[in-house]
């Protein structure tokens, strides 16, 4: 009996559709060619926004990373998620917390997209030796896409949108994982729900953030 494994399936896919660099479209067999990978710039340290104990972002949202994140959300999904998750893990180094929690999608959006990109990134952080990835944080209310709102409307849009849905409290020290950090309003709303359920500290880690104008980021 012959069973195709996901790895074999990926090899076939790669042969049919060889990976082009998300930056310069060169055939590389990888998400980025060496030159575009080198051009990804780290995001400078910044003070955590209200509601988060710590916040850290790996890269500036620009150039090749913008098209890679676009592919992550709307394109070939898991393979891109793995490559980006591994980049994030390498940039972040060891993460100290009891658990990782991915920013949840509302179930309607999850159904429409088929997967949660934040959970895919968090899964790679775990694989790279990070804290365990746990479930239990849920989006209880569908919210408007944050990118369409002014900064001051974003906090109101997501306030109360999340809840902890397990009978036991979450572990005390947590790190939230998301793909793109905008104003931090979504992450702060997640943190508030986790604190209400008993968490003591909640930090956040994200792959990318815009330096200039948050409104262009989604
Ligand atoms: Zn390139």
UniProtKB/TrEMBL annotation:
InterPro entries: ComF/GntX_DNA_util-trans, PRTase-like
Transmembrane segments annotated in the record for this chain: none
PANTHER family in UniProt: DNA UTILIZATION PROTEIN YHGH (PTHR47505:SF1)
Full protein name: Amidophosphoribosyltransferase-like protein
């Amino acid at each position: 009996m012959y069973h195709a494994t996901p790895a074999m399936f990926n090899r076939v896919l790669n042969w049919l559709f060889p990976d082009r660099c998300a930056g310069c479209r060169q055939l590389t067999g990888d998400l980025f060619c060496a030159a575009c990978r080198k051009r990804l710039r780290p995001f400078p340290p910044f003070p955590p926004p209200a509601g988060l104990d710590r916040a850290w972002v790996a890269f500036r949202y620009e150039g090749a990373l913008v098209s890679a994140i676009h592919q992550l959300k709307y394109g070939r999904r898991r393979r891109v998620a793995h490559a980006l998750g591994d980049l994030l893990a390498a940039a972040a180094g060891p993460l100290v917390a009891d658990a990782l929690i991915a920013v949840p999608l509302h179930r309607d959006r999850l159904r429409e997209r088929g997967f949660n990109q934040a959970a895919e990134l968090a899964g790679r952080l775990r694989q790279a030796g990070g804290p365990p990835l746990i479930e239990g944080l849920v989006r209880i209310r569908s919210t408007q896409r944050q990118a369409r709102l002014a900064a001051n409307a974003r906090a109101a849009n997501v306030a109360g949108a999340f809840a902890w849905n397990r009978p036991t409290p979450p572990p005390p020290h947590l790190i939230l994982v998301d793909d793109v950090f905008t104003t931090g309003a979504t992450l702060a709303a997640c943190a508030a729900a986790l604190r209400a359920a008993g968490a003591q500290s909640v930090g956040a880690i994200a792959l990318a953030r815009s330096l200039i104008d948050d409104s262009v980021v989604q």
